[in-house]
């Protein structure tokens, strides 16, 4: 039985903690500015604290290590075994620049989600590749086939999304530098450029390497 130590995190929990820190501190800053008339500098202090905490939870927070064990007929996570023959499907969610997680579905609803940060994805990807091999062995000797679910980026729709992203990026670039249409925001431009570049990489580069 092979073992994997995954630095575990639940992406939804990280996002919730991030917004949970930012929103109340931002609200306090707005209150100090509008109601207490403390001035912009004092009112910005709570916002900076909240933004710092939100950045920490979004970029660095990890819940701890999760031990995953895998054999030819069983996968065990946190001491809970799942028979390979009871798996109905699985998929790797790698469409976020910060998080990646493996989801395993069973007929009995005993689903398993193993998430980590992309900077710590090595162990999770090893588990994913070994799980695929184990399932392929199962499929060769069983009439019941276990299938991997594809993300939309790995289908024909993904190519259409990529073409739409390219068109949008060209429009944003043209509007930013070649027209006089207001308003213009370099921050918004670079945000759109970064998000679009990641999506194009995921659709046209990473997809071909999988």
Structure, described:
It is a single chain. By secondary structure, this protein is an alpha+beta fold. It has five helices and eight strands, in the order E-H-H-E-E-E-E-E-E-H-E-H-H. The strands form two sheets. A four-stranded antiparallel sheet has the order 1-2-3-4, covered by helices on one side. Helix 1 (11-34) packs antiparallel against helix 2 and helix 4 (156-177) runs antiparallel to helix 5 (186-209).
Descriptors:
210 residues, alpha+beta, four-stranded mixed beta sheet
Order of helices and strands: EHHEEEEEEHEHH
| Integer average pLDDT | 86
Fraction of helical residues? 40-55%
Whole-angstrom Rg: 22 Å
Distance between the termini: 25 Å
- Pick out the low-confidence regions: none
Give the arrangement of secondary structure elements:
Blueprint: E1 2-8, H1 11-34, H2 40-59, E2 64-70, E3 74-77, E4 80-83, E5 87-93, E6 99-106, E7 112-117, H3 122-141, E8 147-148, H4 156-177, H5 186-209
Parallel strand pairs: 5-8
Antiparallel strand pairs: 1-2, 2-3, 3-4, 5-6, 6-7
Helix pairs in contact: 1-2, 4-5
Short structural description:
The protein is of the alpha+beta class and 210 residues long. Helices cover 52% and strands 21% of the residues. The longest helix has 24 residues.
């Amino acid at each position: 039985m092979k073992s994997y130590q995954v630095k575990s995190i639940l992406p939804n929990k990280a996002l919730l903690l991030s917004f949970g820190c930012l929103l109340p501190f931002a609200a306090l800053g707005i209150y100090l500015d509008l109601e207490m008339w403390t001035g912009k500098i004092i009112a910005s202090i709570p916002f900076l604290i909240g933004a710092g905490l939100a950045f920490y939870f979004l970029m660095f927070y990890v819940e701890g290590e999760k031990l995953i064990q895998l054999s030819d007929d069983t996968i065990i996570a946190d001491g809970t075994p799942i028979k390979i023959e009871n798996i109905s499907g699985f998929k790797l969610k790698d469409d976020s620049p910060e998080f990646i997680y493996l989801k395993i579905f069973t007929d009995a609803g005993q689903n398993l989600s193993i998430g980590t940060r992309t900077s710590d994805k090595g162990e999770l990807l090893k588990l994913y590749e070994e799980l695929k091999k184990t399932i392929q062995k199962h499929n060769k000797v069983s009439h019941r086939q276990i299938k991997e679910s594809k993300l939309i980026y790995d289908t024909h729709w993904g190519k259409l999304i990529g073409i739409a992203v390219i068109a949008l990026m060209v429009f944003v670039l043209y509007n930013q530098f070649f027209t006089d249409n207001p308003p213009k925001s370099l921050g918004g431009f670079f945000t759109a450029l970064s998000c679009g570049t990641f999506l194009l990489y995921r659709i046209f580069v990473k997809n071909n390497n999988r």
